[in-house]
Amino acid sequence: MSALSLFNRVLDRLEETLIAILMAAATLLIFVAVAHRYMAGFAIPGLQDWLLSLHFSWAQELCIYMFVWMAKFGAAYGVRTGIHVGVDVLVNRLSPAKQKPVILFGLLAGALFTGIVAVMGANFVWHVSHTDQTSPDLELPMWWVYLAIPLGSSLMCYRFLQVAWRFNRDGELPHHDPGEVEGLDEPMDLPAGVDNIHPVAAGRGAR
């Protein structure tokens, strides 16, 4: 295995792990905050006083920051896996020979745009890091929060270049099948003439 392949595999796993952790943590934090607010309304001696002593005013702010980071890295994941929505009606009408330069232009344009955002974001973070700006509730240095912009955009730029290079070499783009369920390898045993969206009522066969 080459060094580049190893780097890409490690980067893929880090990307997926970070997104999963942020999503799970944000979901758990929202659940705890809502449950705390709801349970604190019950006049249960001892329990209510203890719940009211807990402060979750920072939970909403932290969830917003986690979703921002998740969105930035999720966008890069979307480029790698081909789950972004694209309008390809005109591209599909072109001949295969003409499709390739148009697709490459679109991928390189995406890399250029995200690269510019990454550079501007890094410059912005650099200037904010020399100030005393902090978040309202958590009092985190704001440059920590804004760091998602250059990091996420840089990764997205790399993914555009990665997809463009593979497409130029193999002529294949990452494709995501919305009907695919991961881990479901066996075909569904359905009666003839029945799709997998509208189930047949019990005791009734396909018409």
Written overview of the protein:
This protein is an all-alpha fold. The protein has 7 helices and no strands. α1 runs antiparallel to α3 (59-81), α3 (59-81) runs parallel beside α7 (148-170) and α5 packs antiparallel against α7.
Question: In total, how many domains does the architecture comprise?
Answer: 1
Question: The biggest beta sheet, please?
Answer: none
Structural class designation: mainly alpha
Helix percentage range: 55-70%
Please write the string of helix (H) and strand (E) elements: HHHHHHH
Unreliable runs: none
Tell the overall outline: elongated
Distance between the termini: 54 Å
Number of distinct beta strands:
0
Averaged pLDDT: 84
Gyration radius, to the nearest Å? 24 Å
The portion of residues forming beta strands comes to: under 5%
Total count of helical runs of at least 4 residues = 7
Keywords:
single chain, 207 residues, mainly alpha
What's the structural blueprint in terms of helices and strands?
Layout: H1 3-39, H2 47-53, H3 59-81, H4 89-92, H5 96-128, H6 142-146, H7 148-170
Helix pairs in contact: 1-3, 3-7, 5-7
